Amino acid sequence: MSRKIRVLIVDDSTVIRRLLTDALSSDPAIEVAGIAANGKIALSKIPQLNPDIITLDMEMPEMDGITTLVELRKLYPKLPVIMFSTLTHQGAEATIDALAKGANDYVTKPANVGSVTAAIANVKSELIPKIKAFCSWALPKVTPVRSIVRTPTNTTLPSFLNTLAKRNTNKIDIIAIGVSTGGPNALQEVIPNLPADLPVPIVIVQHMPPIFTKHLANRLNALSKLNVVEATAGESIQPGGVWLAPGDFHMVLKREGTAMKVVLNKGTPENSCRPAVDVLFRSVAAIYGPNVLSVVLTGMGQDGARGCAVIRDAGGRTLVQDEATSVVWGMPGAVVQAGLADKVLPLNQIAEEIVLETRHGRSIRSLASQAH
Length: 372
Description:
This protein is about 40% helix and about 20% strand. By secondary structure, the chain is an alpha/beta fold. It folds into 2 domains: about 5-140, Rossmann fold (3-Layer(aba) Sandwich), CATH 3.40.50.2300; about 155-370, Rossmann fold (3-Layer(aba) Sandwich), CATH 3.40.50.180. The strands form 3 sheets. The chain has a 7-stranded parallel sheet with strand order 8-9-7-6-12-13-14, sandwiched between helices. Strands 2-1-3-4-5 form a 5-stranded parallel sheet, with helices on both faces. The longest helix is centred in the middle third of the chain and has 19 residues, at about 115-135.
């Protein structure tokens, strides 16, 4: 049996430290190696405690979370850090900043720590899976499923081969991206490297709570040549724009005459997520058929895999981020293991491949006309 995952909890609140200790200690794979009331104490304890992972509060006296993170990264560039954030505009902005400065992920604090049972349940569902994802060495090894491309059972071989042939020749009319853990930094690598004259729109589901998606869209917009916004209901999408699903809403597209409109809904979460990648991917496959390019980037779980199967059946194509450059290879790995990935690429090649895919099947004249 592997040794337990050692966690250092850094938080100035006695209540939160006790809550986290109780919640984490209840899992047999995890032990709380120590606690610290601020960043300065935490930095002094790391050499003695040798933790495998750190939970780090944002707002603390003497040395806050961001300052601690910057100092910590100078000494321990590979030590996983999960930020503990508040569900506020200030907390969301600080979290996006922390991710850019080297935090691996974040969780939001329980809104009401007065309800201890609910707060512990929240920590168990949100924080523990992330700790285990970053310390996967401590978990039992699972034999990966071999990648196989299967002929769908409800179709004949000739029609399946025709579908495969179409997927190599059809031009792309929309990019749909699904991403989760590690996503903000992955998107900052991809979206700012796309040209202003990209001839298709981009729609994105990033697993994030409300408020956070707005700040992420603003950050991407400031860095990009394309116009990036948090999607609003009824908006028309067009080339040169990027629409990010708002937290707690599924995003789908709907054709109205010649326009494509954004529709938001609070349907049942899928894969425990809302927004869910599968919901968006099914929607674009239904409207655009073989003219979809789906892109699955770093993330926990397998949201997006079923949607990629629908896109493949419609004749579309799928790009996947490789394991080496993913923070967590759950979502992209699920697509690869299901045999649904057309290309598996490192993160720094995704933007270039998107550009090549969108120019395939378009004449110079049509590209010029769409740029104006």
